[in-house]
Each structure stands twice: as C-alpha cells, then as structure tokens.
Amino acid sequence: ILTGLFLAMHYTPDTSTAFSSVAHICRDVNYGWFIRYLHANGASMFFICLYAHIGRGLYYGSYMFQETWNIGVLLLLTVMATAFVGYVLPWGQMSFWGATVITNLLSAIPYIGTTLVEWIWGGFSVDKATLTRFFAFHFILPFII
C-alpha cells in the first residue's frame, strides 16, 4: 500500500497521459522505477503467500468451516479484482485489451451481462471513464481488504 501511495502522487488516470505518466515515474522520478517494481513484485509476493495460505487451508480441511471459507473466497476474488484493475492502469496495449476482454467476459451472464459491462465501462467501450473508475477501485480496495 505504501508504494502505491508514492506512485499515486505522480500517476494521472487519463487515457491520453496515463502511459506517459508511468514512463515519467520510471525515468524522471527519483527511484520511481524502484518503487514501481517494488509495487508490482510486492503484489506478486502477496499472491504467492495467498496461494500458500489457500494450500494450507485445503491440507488442513479448513473448507469445513463454511462461513470462514466463504469469506476467504470473497477476499480472494476482491484481491484478484484489485490486481486486475492495477494491471490496467499503465494503459498500454496489453492493459487496454486486457480490460476489454476480461470485462467482456461478464457479458456472458444472462439478462444482466451487457448492462453490467456497460456500467463497469462507464459507457459503451473501454475509455476514460473506465480508467478513472479502475484507478479509484485500485486505490480504495486495498484499504477495504
């Protein structure tokens, strides 16, 4: 969370400047490249610990405690959503198309899928509103978790 706060000081959640703001962080901010890589690799280490925790829970039969297990699954999904929206923030080609494809998977939900996707996008396509929402979610969700 601490590295994210430092990165947020220089990041601009706008479709025309997001990519260049990430480049600015890596090139012009003192140790910005280091903070960014700490942020990304810290998230990866967090997931490694999370998967080890899940494995331990499966080994010891913690899934027998339904409520605790269900809360854990909900937390896992929230952490995965946080990581996904963080992946979109640099707004490169991989980020843009990742956001487009992954959010479009929700359109397969009967009756509400298309409406849900348009609500997440903030319109009819992945655009400025989507990036702004994803930045807000990526900033707020870790504090909620």
From TrEMBL:
Spans traversing the lipid bilayer: 37-59, 71-90, 96-121
GO terms classed as biological process: mitochondrial electron transport, ubiquinol to cytochrome c
Sequence ranges assigned to domain Cytochrome b/b6 N-terminal region profile in this UniProt record: 1-145
The entry's keywords: Electron transport, Heme, Iron, Membrane, Metal-binding, Mitochondrion, Mitochondrion inner membrane, Respiratory chain, Transmembrane, Transmembrane helix, Transport, Ubiquinone
Subcellular location: Mitochondrion inner membrane
Keyword Glycoprotein recorded: no
UniProt cross-references to InterPro entries, sorted A to Z: Cyt_b/b6_N, Cytb/b6-like_sf, Cytochrome_b_N_euk/bac, Di-haem_cyt_TM
Molecular function as annotated in GO: metal ion binding; oxidoreductase activity; quinol-cytochrome-c reductase activity
PROSITE patterns in alphabetical order: CYTB_NTER (PS51002)
Main location: mitochondrion
Domain of life: Eukaryota
UniProt KW Methyltransferase keyword: no
GO cellular component: a single term: mitochondrial inner membrane
Cofactor requirements of the protein: heme b
Recorded topology in the membrane: Multi-pass membrane protein
Quaternary structure note: The cytochrome bc1 complex contains 11 subunits: 3 respiratory subunits (MT-CYB, CYC1 and UQCRFS1), 2 core proteins (UQCRC1 and UQCRC2) and 6 low-molecular weight proteins (UQCRH/QCR6, UQCRB/QCR7, UQCRQ/QCR8, UQCR10/QCR9, UQCR11/QCR10 and a cleavage product of UQCRFS1). This cytochrome bc1 complex then forms a dimer.
Described purpose of this protein according to its UniProt entry: Component of the ubiquinol-cytochrome c reductase complex (complex III or cytochrome b-c1 complex) that is part of the mitochondrial respiratory chain. The b-c1 complex mediates electron transfer from ubiquinol to cytochrome c. Contributes to the generation of a proton gradient across the mitochondrial membrane that is then used for ATP synthesis.
Name the record gives this protein: Cytochrome b
Native source species: Tursiops truncatus
